[in-house]
Structure formats: structure tokens, C-alpha cells
Task: inverse folding
DNA sequence: CCCTATCCTGCCT
DNA sequence: AGGCAGGATAGG
């Protein structure tokens, strides 16, 4: 039933990688610990990491997979016999993470303290359509609600892939489905708020101005700068979302999304002089990105994800260890805000 | 260039 | 019942 290949946790740490906010659809199976499932490219996938191996199996009722637009780096479509190859591509296993960790540790003392507790954190190579629209949903939201919204997109505009144990699993919707008339109204009704307009408008924009999702895939072949410039021309896509898409699905390893978490990390540990800023200006945004790119090199975006995940994990641990520590952290943040305001005045 | 207000909603306190 | 969240945008 399960197939597998060898893969150490120092290479891939599924527990973190699948749940750190790169991708919003991986769910841990409550009955099978350390097991996750998700629909990718027309199939329902189950993954399990154990004993230096990654186990996997897939299901699909329909032949949706034959119509999916996904291409492996080799340029081939995925078929049943190529599932391992697909996973190696999805996890980008040709990239030697321990070696990169070594490099980043030498460049950054702060990083070297993380490397033992947070090993095996790497970028997934996601589908650009799912990646783009998930991150349009992400603005002014937390992971939990982003996941809920993404799921609603799939339920309402995706295809049924497989039904098992009373649960229907859907694919992520196509660009065409999201650009159909009435989508904005429907999404508003479903609780997307002002993001409804952006989702519909971006889908339509790509369809009419660029001729469909092929344009998105082709951004993989363009430079980081070019791809970024193209993406921010979409409605609802600013520098941060564009960098997420560049990094997570367009093979731009140097792209560094600066969200409020990374902003805090940068102020705290690397660029304290930016504390004078009230908001993340375009200039500061670039300064932070350039700083990390200079320090970490070609795969700076991947290094950023390690910093980010470590910070996120700490925060979640605080949360689950009781409300006391959460309150304390919140209070700390409030105090900081107040003192900051005073300084400005 | 920097700053501010506004956009929606659910989840949290 | 009010604050706020893994932002984007328009306008001053």
C-alpha cells in the first residue's frame, strides 16, 4: 500500500515544513500521527515520515490528473509511475539542506543557534496558481483563517478528486473557474471580505491580459526582478505577496517576503536602526531583503523560512503552554508599542 | 518618499 | 464590544 523512499529528517522536517504557512492545505490525520494528507495535481496524497523514510500513497477517482497543468522540472507531466519523482520535485530534494545550513551558520551566528532544533526546513515547490491565490487570501489574516478561506475556494470552485470516509476532497480551482462571472459576490457571501474582489480581479486579469495560467508558469523562467515586477501588477498583489509567490512556486530562491513576523525579527536581531520606522516602507522592505540576501547568498529566501518557522514555532509553543505566557507576550508587545510612540513624540 | 485611513471578517479576549 | 491579524491601495 505505502510506497517509500529514504529521506532523513535533517533533509526534510515534514512536521514543520507542511505546517509553517507555506502551504495551507496539508492536514495532519488525527488517527494516524505524523501522517498528512492534501490534494495536489489531481490526486489525494497521504504522506508519512518515519524512521528515515518518507512513505506516500495516492488516490484519485476521476482522471482529473491527466488534465492538470503541472510540469516537473524535467518538463514531463506527472503519471502514476512518476509519483516518487513528483515528490522529489515537490520537496526539491536535489537541494542539499544540511550543506546550506552549514553555510548560513557560518554567515550568521544567530542562525547557528537554530540549526539543531529546527533542522530540515526547506521550501516546497508549489503550484503557482494555488500559491498566488492562497496568499491573496493571506492579507490581514492568520494561518487558521487563511486555511479556512482556501478550503472554501476549493469546495466551491475546485473539482471533486475523491470521496473517502464521507469526506470529499477537492482540487484547487483553476484560473478559469475563479474568473467566471459572479465569483466576487459569491466569495463575499462566503466571508472573504474585500479579498473577494482581488481574487476575482486577479484571475480575470491573468486570463484576459496574459492568456491564462501558462503565463504564471512561464514566470519560472524569468529573472526574480522580472517575475516580481509582473506579479505586483496584479490587483491585490503587493511586494510581500509577490515575494511569497516568487519564493514558493516560481523557483526564485533569493526572494524574501517581509511580513510583520520578519519585520519583528529584523528589528530585534539584525537591523535595530529600523525601529525608528512606523511602518514597513518600500525602502525599508528592500533594505531588509537586501541585507539577508547579502548575508545568506543565493538561497537567502530558504534561510528566511528557517528563521520564520523557528519564530512561528516558538509563538505556537507559547500559546499551547497556557494563556499566561501568551498574555505575557502580548503585554510585552503592547509595552513596546507604547514606548515606541513616546520616543517618536 | 513617508504616512494614514480604509477595506471585511472571524476569532480572540 | 473591541482589538487585531503573516497587506494592498489610494490619497495627502
Result:
Amino acid at each position: 500500500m505505502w510506497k517509500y523512499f529514504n529521506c532523513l529528517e535533517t533533509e526534510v522536517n515534514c512536521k514543520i515544513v507542511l505546517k509553517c504557512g507555506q502551504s495551507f492545505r496539508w492536514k495532519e490525520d488525527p488517527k494516524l500521527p505524523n501522517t498528512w494528507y492534501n490534494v495536489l495535481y489531481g490526486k489525494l496524497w497521504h504522506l508519512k515520515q518515519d524512521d528515515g523514510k518518507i512513505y506516500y500513497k495516492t488516490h484519485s477517482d476521476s482522471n482529473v490528473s491527466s488534465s492538470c497543468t503541472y510540469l516537473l522540472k524535467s518538463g514531463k507531466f506527472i503519471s502514476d509511475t512518476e509519483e516518487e519523482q513528483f515528490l522529489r520535485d515537490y520537496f526539491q530534494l536535489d537541494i542539499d539542506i544540511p550543506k546550506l545550513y552549514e553555510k548560513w551558520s557560518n554567515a550568521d551566528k544567530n542562525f547557528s543557534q537554530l540549526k539543531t532544533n529546527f533542522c530540515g526546513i526547506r521550501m516546497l515547490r508549489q503550484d503557482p496558481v494555488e500559491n498566488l491565490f492562497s496568499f491573496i487570501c493571506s492579507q490581514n489574516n492568520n494561518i487558521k483563517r487563511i486555511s479556512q478561506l482556501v478550503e472554501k475556494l476549493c469546495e466551491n470552485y475546485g473539482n471533486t478528486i475523491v470521496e473517502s470516509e464521507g469526506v470529499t476532497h477537492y482540487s484547487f480551482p483553476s484560473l478559469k473557474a475563479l474568473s467566471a462571472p459572479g465569483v466576487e459576490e459569491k466569495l463575499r457571501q462566503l466571508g472573504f471580505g474585500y479579498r473577494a474582489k482581488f481574487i476575482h480581479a486577479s484571475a480575470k486579469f491573468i486570463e484576459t491580459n496574459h492568456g491564462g495560467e501558462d503565463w504564471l508558469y512561464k514566470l519560472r523562467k524569468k529573472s526574480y526582478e522580472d517575475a516580481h515586477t509582473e506579479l505586483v501588477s496584479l490587483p491585490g498583489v503587493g511586494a510581500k505577496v509577490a515575494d511569497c509567490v516568487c519564493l514558493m512556486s516560481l523557483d526564485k530562491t533569493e526572494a524574501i517576503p517581509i511580513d510583520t513576523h520578519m519585520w519583528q525579527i529584523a528589528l530585534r536581531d539584525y537591523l535595530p536602526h529600523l525601529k525608528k520606522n512606523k511602518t514597513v516602507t518600500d525602502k525599508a522592505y528592500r533594505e531588509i531583503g537586501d541585507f539577508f540576501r547579502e548575508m545568506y547568498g543565493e538561497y537567502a529566501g530558504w534561510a528566511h523560512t528557517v528563521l520564520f518557522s523557528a519564530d512561528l514555532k516558538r509563538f505556537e509553543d507559547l500559546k499551547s503552554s497556557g494563556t499566561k505566557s501568551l498574555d505575557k507576550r502580548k503585554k510585552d508587545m503592547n509595552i513596546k508599542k507604547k514606548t515606541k510612540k513616546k520616543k517618536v513624540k
Notes: Chain A has 16 helices and seven strands. Residues 323-344 of chain A form the longest helix (22 residues).
